Amino acid sequence: MDNNLRGMQIGKKRTRDEENTIMEEKEELDILIFIINFITMIVGASYHHNYRLRDISWDKSEHTHRRSIWMQTLESETTSIELLRVNPATFKKLCGILQSEGGLVASRNITIKEIVALFLHILGHGIKYSWVKACYARSGETISRQFHVVLKAVMKRGKYYIREANSNENYQDNGKWKFFEGVLGALDGTHIQMTVPFEDRARYRNRKGDLSTNVLGVCDPKMKFTYVLPGWEGSATDPRILGEALHRRNRLKIPSNKYYLVDGAYTNGPGFLAPYRGTRYHLNLWRGNRPTNYKELFNLRHSSARNTIERAFGLLKKRWAILRAPSFFDKQTQVRIINACFILHNFIREEMTEDDLLKQVDEELANSLDIENEIRDEENIRAIRLTHEWTTFRDNLAMQMFNEYQAR
What we know:
By secondary structure, this protein is α/β, with parallel strands linked by helices. It has helices at about 1-50, 60-75, 75-85, 90-100, 110-125, 130-135, 140-155, 160, 200-205, 240-245, 295-320, 330-350, 355-365, 390-405; strands at about 185-195, 210-220, 225-235, 260, 270-275.
């Protein structure tokens, strides 16, 4: 009986292994087809650049044919995700929204799908116009003009995708967030490298020596951003930017009975629940350890929930390579591109239920050694201040968690 059972288990395992092997071979074949098509396009574009452009009598139909082949290549699931960072269904819906609600208009010579594709291609890989010219067989002037047209259309839809957090949302069914009644999400800053004029470099140089903008981001437990403030100099501190966000016209609004989870760089005050300083916090430091008191348990659960903003930032930068290195655009356009990437992030979170990029982000965060936060020492809330009431609120919440934890 045991031998039969063991034989069945081995048979099932072999079947699973065979299925996995078939899937892997299919993915490898898709990638190989994409590489062959891509190389063909590049070789053709190089030939045209070196020889045909010198001939005034070149045939426009060759360009049209090459573009047609390229756009057909992008209809593949694997190629679409690799190059445009979205699957074909999401790409099609985005094109429709930008056309019907973003004011995007096709012309006799260029389609909506093509200009949205080249836009996503540039954001997804941070490539220069010369590469896009080779793939889409378009002039640099056309690519530049259409890039800014699509950028404007995406920005026009921004307010519909980056919306204020729902203060009535209940997260009691969420394993990480159920311990924090009244929470709206998590808040933090992230640095995105920028190219700035020489006279601005001192202000934009961050403490690591890079030129960057410090972007304030706020997200809900579903990893959708509810508030974004880009454009601040890299030398600006997170608390300073948060203070500005609470007072500007388009300010971050926090009802007086609600709060966001923040890291140790921020003050633990009304609207902002910070961890205990001087107590183990970073998730990676909890491997093989169990909490022994109420502060440690609070920090463990706080870190587990607040990790959502780290995952959201990680996914944003993983998808849009243009955010991982300085670009050739002017400063104002770079800020608009950053905003556009946040908008597209939220759109994709709504449309793509399966996202392999998030798995990669989680693996990278799990192996991360960056524990910087361990050592960093009216109707709507408008200021960040340390109060006895808020300190007591945190202590009571932490002790309640620990008592329930011990009881279990």
